[in-house]
From TrEMBL:
CDD domains: MIP (cd00333)
Alphabetical UniProt keywords: Membrane, Transmembrane, Transmembrane helix, Transport
Name under which the protein is recorded: Aquaporin TIP-type alpha
Listed GO CC annotations: membrane
GO terms assigned for molecular function: water channel activity
Length: 256
């Protein structure tokens, strides 16, 4: 996707095998990521059975998210681009790096992967209710919204610089999953005690649906989408150099 384009998508793209494979890759990768991320929170609750979040538990959850996202992106990057996040797909759409039709496919696959993951977790944990995300007591909705915008801005900026930028080097392709996983893990350490540091509407939606926890759920959609949009537009229109129009060299006299 080296060329910026804004389009709905070709009619043959809707049923093209590449579109189906890309959507399937997003489904599987999101399932893996949500299963490990939400599963790590449920595992700690099963081990300690205490309310609240200690420093050690926060580090465990951050590492689980970082490692799982690194693996999920590495496994799907060559097929779908390794979005694994509706906010990242939204940013790529605003930057003209993906068609609207393919973005819709990705969103459906990501949300479905999250739902299936949460259902699997409820099955294998003997009906433990997924925790999802919520705003910590003492942190208001506005603060949680701004935090999600800031955290997702950092995530999307990293995604753009390492995985989407058409001028990126081949070394960036190799380091992109690691860099993205690292920034998510770091963001969980920074924002986890306040609102869980979601940065991903799909990560929030499946556990919220299966666990039926909807308190402040809108924050984990609006915040990531705004943060991803701001980072994508900034990077696309400021950091990506504009290609100069092609010009022809004047012919030498003997070529006339």
């Amino acid at each position: 996707m080296a060329t910026r384009r804004y389009e709905f998508g070709r009619m043959d793209e809707a049923s093209h095998p590449d579109s189906m494979r890309a959507a399937l890759a997003e489904f599987v990768s999101t399932l893996v990521f949500v299963f490990v991320g939400e599963g790590s929170a449920l595992a700690l609750r099963q081990i300690y059975r205490e309310p609240g979040l200690s420093a050690g538990e926060l580090v465990v959850i951050a590492l689980a998210h970082a490692f799982a996202l690194f693996a999920a992106i590495s496994a799907s990057m060559h097929v779908s681009g390794g979005h694994v996040n509706p906010a990242v797909t939204f940013g790529a759409l605003l930057g003209g790096r993906i068609s609207l039709l393919r973005a819709i496919y990705y969103w459906l696959a990501q949300l479905l992967g999250s739902i299936v993951s949460a259902l699997l977790l409820r099955l294998v944990t003997n009906n433990m209710r997924p925790q999802g995300f919520s705003v910590t007591i003492g942190v208001g909705a506005f603060h949680g919204l701004v935090l999600e915008i800031a955290l997702t801005f950092g995530l999307m900026y990293t995604v753009y610089a390492t995985a989407i930028d058409p001028k990126r080097s081949s070394a960036n392709n190799a380091v992109a999953p690691l860099a993205i996983g690292f920034v998510v893990g770091a963001n969980v350490l920074a924002g986890g005690p306040f609102d869980g540091a979601c940065m991903n509407p799909a990560r929030a939606f499946g556990p919220s649906l299966v666990g039926w926890r909807w308190d402040y759920h809108w924050i984990f959609w609006v915040g990531p989408l705004i943060g991803a949009a701001l980072a994508a537009l900034l990077y696309e229109y400021v950091m990506v150099p504009i290609e100069p129009p092609p010009h022809h060299q004047p012919l030498a006299a003997e070529d006339y």
